[in-house]
Amino acid sequence: MPVLWIFEDQLSPDLSTLPESPDAPVMMIESARAFGMFPYHPKRLTFLISAMRHFAAELEAAGRTVHYFHLKPAKYRDSLSAVRDVVKKTGCSEFWIVEPSEYHTRAWLDTLPKQLGITIRYFPNTLFLTDRAEFRTWARGVKSPVMEIFYRKMRDKHGILMDGPDPEGGRWNLDKENRKPLKKAIKIPPHKSFAPDEITKEVMAEVTRRFGGNYGSVDGFDMPVTRKQAKAALKDFLDHRLPKFGDYEDAMVTGEPFLFHSFLSATINAGLLAPLKVVKAAEKRYRDGHAPLNSVEGFCRQILGWREYVYGIYWAFMPGYRERNTRHSSRALPQFFWTGDTKMNCLHQSIGSVVEHGYSHHIQRLMIICNFATLAGLTPQAVNDWFLSMYVDSHDWVVTPNVIGMAMNADGGTMATKPYVSSAAYVNRMSDYCKNCHYNHKARTGDDACPFNYLYWTFLERFRAMFKGNIRMKMILANLDKIDPDEMKQMMQERKRFIEALK
Fold this sequence. Notes:
By secondary structure, the chain is mostly helical. It has 22 helices and 7 strands.
């Protein structure tokens, strides 16, 4: 009889290994190696460890024997010691493992048979809908594996928001309808919270003791850590936020980190919710007339499209993908990335949310944090490590393509044909951040000029040759040509002063 080894992001009763051997014991390890790899946000650690312990209890309640290894009290020195302990207790040296989601984990696992004298049998990872081999063949066979093409195939394959062979409503993508700034009269529903139970409280105390030096805090932790809670969080989103999600998914508001977003990514990535079931639940709300098409399509695109797409990109181009740095950016991460202490209010709000909650929504990630990182020439790998460290939903497979590829355009154009950068005009249009900022969002030069303005225009000037042949950059470069040379010279000086002052 094999031992079923389950990892912290595989907390699902739908794992492909479980029905194959209904009487097999399970091994779960709170790995010091995995949880100490980066200075992870204490809320991320609390979520994963508490969810692991609750899932172990769920398995035991279903009759499984679970060999569970805690960080504390320390019953083992490392994962290798835990494996040896299980082999000794069970007399079994065969381990069944669902394909890990991350490249480095698979590479490490492949070293264990020789080290420990065990055998490993891998099973398909059914927590994703993407076939790795099929995606790799497609992605490596085209110049630019565009997400939209993949997304349409996934919609058709799984029958989501389809009207026969055509997309529901006649269009595949309603993103243009989902770019409204939030109106003052719109009431934002409260974020659903879950009071920590005794297991979670114990985890919070352990995380504080062991990882108290990491940025962030366990204070206020209220995330769902069980399948029942995750389903309740999904229902709350569908009931109260999905109807307006589409209209305001790109909006940013002071003091409102969640707005109409689902905040379900961490639970999906850990296996507490199945992605296809989540998508179908949202689709049903549209079919029943409880949510508009633009909201449901936008939400489904994030999961059935982007989530599955970045997973495919990750496995198609790793391990080299993580080190890509097309513009050879080399500037270190400023200290305010860990604290949110900066005069730029948009960054203060966005990073402050990450420090407090381990979360900010996708536009804050893309058009505030990574926009700044790209324009300022921060090292993509340092930004990538920061995202891995600070977000509760972070895993290498999701962070690396989103940061290196989509957000910082450092992958040579594999994911996006142009960089997602902007001046302060975009920030002012989509948020209320500029109203209470130290800087003037309209000024490009001068002591009160918004750094986003001169960083943006000087970025375009510095990399003009790289963008010249890009049809999507034609209008932007035409606007660049209209800038007076003396003003560009002054903006270059402003940039130099600002960059040199970054600490």
